Amino acid sequence: QVQLVESGGGLVQAGGSLRLSCAASGRTFNLDVTGWFRQAPGKEREFVAAIRWNGGRTYYADSVKGRFTISRDSAKNTVYLEMNNLKPEDTAVYYCAADPFVLDVATKNYYDYWGQGTQVTVSS
Length: 124
What we know:
- By secondary structure, the chain is an all-beta fold.
- It is 0% helix and 52% strand.
- The N and C termini lie far apart (40 Å).
């Protein structure tokens, strides 16, 4: 089993920045990918970004490219999501997800482990 705990959400004005953290514990040694998804009220949960633990390849949704950066600290089993130039449409609950094998990083069904979510609110 793997436990994921997100932190770093909050309220920020448009144009501001936040950094989310996802700390993993448990059987983390064989994780393949850790990703971030978000869900706004009344909408489907959508892919934001992902990173492979082996090699560090990163993936981004088009809506966040150039504004968000995903990174990892292997020593701390932690993945970060640096969010800059935030927009009101970025408002959502942000979830961290992980799995030992992910064929398509943007498809939430490939992830078995999920965090509890952290709220990000961007005011205009």
